[in-house]
Every structure is written in C-alpha cells, then in structure tokens.
Amino acid sequence: MRIDERVITGQMLAERLGDDKQLEVTPEAKLTPTALDYIRAHGVEVRRVRAAPAPAAAAASTAPSAVAGGSASVVRPAAPTAATAGTARPSRRQFRGIFCPNIVIFDERQRLNYDEMERYIDWLVQAGIHGLYPNGSTGEFVRLSWDERQEVVKLICTVNAGRVPVLAGASEGNVRDVLRMAEYYASIGVDAISLVAPYYYKISTQSLREYFAEIAQNSPLDILLYNIPQFTQELTLDLMEELLQYERIFGTKDSARDLPRLLNTMNRLRRQRPDYVVLVGCEEILFPSVLMGADGGTIATSGIIPEVIVEIYQCAIAGNVERGRQLQYRILDLIGLMLLGANFPEGFKTGVGVRGFAVGPPRQPMSEQERLHLMQLEREIACILSDMGYTVCGARACPVTNQRPVVGR
C-alpha cells in the first residue's frame, strides 16, 4: 500500500491498510505518534520511496528513478529527531496572523492524551490557523513537568509537519534551563521561543535586562518577549527599547489587555526596528489592534472558533471594518464565559470540548461545586456557539436571540 499524504496519522492507516503489512510513503512524509503506534502494534514495514516520475519525464531517461539513490530505505518506527521533525523553517517575517495557544488534553490518569491532542492540532491547522503556540498560559506550562513540556512541543511539531510556524513557550526557572529548552526546541523544528519575565521572585529592572540579554546572546532560536503583568513582572517600554539591540529578540506578545500600551509599543519600537513584530494576546481588542498595525495575535479563543478569529484578522488586514466590527462584538459574550466563568484555562478547555473533542480531566483539582458550575458553563458556551452557527455538543434549552449565524452550520 502506498500513501502519498504529507502527514500520515494512525486513523489514516487503520482505514487504508487493512491486512497489508507493507507501507510505502514519500521521503518527506511525517508519521504522527498514533501512526507510529499503529505501525508497531501491527508489525508494518515502512519504506520511504519517491513517487514514480510522470510519463514524459520517464521517457527522457531509462535509468530507474522511482527510488532515491536507486534503492528504497526501510524505516523502523522511532521517535522524531532533528532530521525528521521539519527542516524548512519559516522566516520571522511569517510571524503574522493568528497563533493558537493550544490547550493540553489529559487522559483519565492525568497523562498526555496523544491521540486526542493529535486530532485537535491537525484540526486547528486545517481550520486555517496561521501558527501554533504550545506551552503558553492556555497550555498550562507551569502545571506540566519538564518532560511533559518537551513532549507537548514534540507532538505538535510532528503533527504540524512544517505547515505553519511553531512558537513555543520556553519560560523556565533560570537562564540555564531556558537555554537547554531552547536547544531542544531547535532540534525538533520549533521556529521561535516566547519568554515571560522570571516569575515568583521579583527582580530589579537591571537584572531583568541582563536576564533577557544573556538569553538573546546564547539562544539558538529567535525570541518573542511575552508581557503578561497579571502573572509576572511587566516588561516596560523602556526595557523593551533597550533590548532592541539584540537581533534575536524580534518582537513581543502583549497580554496586558491595554490597547494604548499596545499602540505605544508599535509606535515607539518600530521607529528603530520597522520589522518589529507585535502580537496582541487579548481577543477583546483583536480587531482594533490589527487595524492599527499589530501583526496578529496569540488568541486562546482561536482554539475553539478558529474560523471566526482568522476572519476577524483577515477583515482587519483587508479594511473590512463593518464585518470585522460585527464579528468582534459577536465573540465578546463567549470570551467572557470562557475567560471569567471558571478557573483559567478550564473555560477554554470546556469550549474545545463543546466543539467535539474529549478534553479529559483538569490538571488542577476542583471542588464539587466548581464541577457543577463548569457543567452549567458548558451548556451556556454550547448555546452561544450554536447561535453563531456551529454544530456543537450539548446545546439545549437555549434562549432565542434572533441573531444571524456568522458561520455555516
């Protein structure tokens, strides 16, 4: 059996292979973790063979060309390495659009649910997301072990297979561990890292500058500064301006929920670095931010309604103010429920569940009262999504709003 798709999943193999124990794929094909599991479980031999040339090309030469180098290579199932995790990296100029700070899905034993994560990430890319952002706040990086943080990013790089840029959070407890994680990310095909200010201990502005400077001088990957003063020290504009001298630091993601600050960031820093990337981390101001010059956003709601969030961005780029404004206002109630209605990021994980994914249990323990509240929240989210035009799980007894759908059912 030959499969020529660029990304091959376990489900694809189950549907197509049947009892066949031999599989031919292209040399560039990416085998996802579930595909590797299927191959091991069923004893399938994988051969990487280039597709036969078109008849016209074949007539030009009688030498065999179906196999690179004249012979097929037999591939044994193995974890992705630096050589197989994606080699063609996008330039920093492609850090535009909507980056999804994806949730992490656990199984009933609190382990990473590889099957469902794989299905979810592939769905996001196919839905039109411009980039993936694992190990951010929505990805609960502080609740994951070192190994789990690495596993999440490795899984995403494998499933993504280079289709969109990957921006991975590398905010560890000290400079040494940040650089260790950055080196690992570089080995598996990550495009850039994001960094918050060091958390827990408050440090001086001078120490904060030295922290980022040392990482910028030694990191193998480009760096996007991450300003989120709700959880750690604020990155002031003075500090970010000082850090412009480091070429590795190519931009900032701002989740301060402060539009004037965002505008001043673009106005001030781009005077010296016109290509300085600015991503907004607050969905409530996505449309006006992009309209005023932001390169895009890292938007948690894009993990639930990627089609609408991408359209808001596209409306801003195209200057379609009427449609963009309509969509921006339409998503506010949904954002309020997911952001403020439960412990972060459980509201967003609930939204992903309503879209049809088995998101599993929370990593953070909850009381029985909180669980009951989350069930009510699930019904309310389902009603809003149904009203927007989505086919969802759990929409019942919803109020009539008489609003027109924004997506096709």
Features:
TIM Barrel; 40% helix; globular; eight-stranded parallel β-sheet; 409 residues; 13 strands; three-stranded mixed β-sheet; alpha/beta
What is the topology?
Blueprint: E1 7-8, H1 10-16, E2 22-25, E3 30-31, H2 33-42, E4 45-48, H3 55-59, E5 73-75, E6 97-100, H4 114-126, E7 131-132, H5 146-160, E8 167-169, H6 175-188, E9 192-195, H7 205-218, E10 222-227, H8 237-242, E11 249-254, H9 259-269, E12 277-280, H10 286-291, E13 296-298, H11 306-318, H12 321-330, H13 332-340, H14 346-354, H15 368-388
Parallel strand pairs: 1-3, 2-4, 6-7, 6-13, 8-9, 9-10, 10-11, 11-12, 12-13
Antiparallel strand pairs: 4-5
Overview of this protein structure:
- The chain is of the alpha/beta class and 409 residues long.
- The protein has 2 domains: 1-54, no CATH class; 92-338, TIM Barrel (Alpha-Beta Barrel).
- Helix content is 40%, strand content 11%.
- It has 15 helices and 13 strands.
- Strands 7-6-13-12-11-10-9-8 form an 8-stranded parallel sheet. A 3-stranded mixed sheet has the order 2-4-5, with no helix packed on it.
- The longest helix has 21 residues, at 368-388.
- It is globular, with a radius of gyration of 23 Å.
Low-confidence stretches: 54-91
Annotated CATH topology of the largest domain:
TIM Barrel
How many helical stretches?
A: 15
Number of domains: 2
Alpha-carbon Rg, integer: 23 Å
CATH architecture annotation name of the largest domain:
Alpha-Beta Barrel
> Helix amount, in percent?
25-40%
Largest sheet properties: 8 strands, parallel
**Widest β-sheet, arrangement of strands:** 7-6-13-12-11-10-9-8
User: Going by CATH, what is the homologous superfamily of the largest domain?
Assistant: Aldolase class I
User: Termini, distance in Å?
Assistant: 36 Å
Total number of β-strand segments? 13
Average pLDDT number = 87
Structural class: alpha/beta
CATH C-level label of the largest domain: Alpha Beta
Shape: globular
Strand content: 5-15%
Task: Please write the string of helix (H) and strand (E) elements.
Answer: EHEEHEHEEHEHEHEHEHEHEHEHHHHH
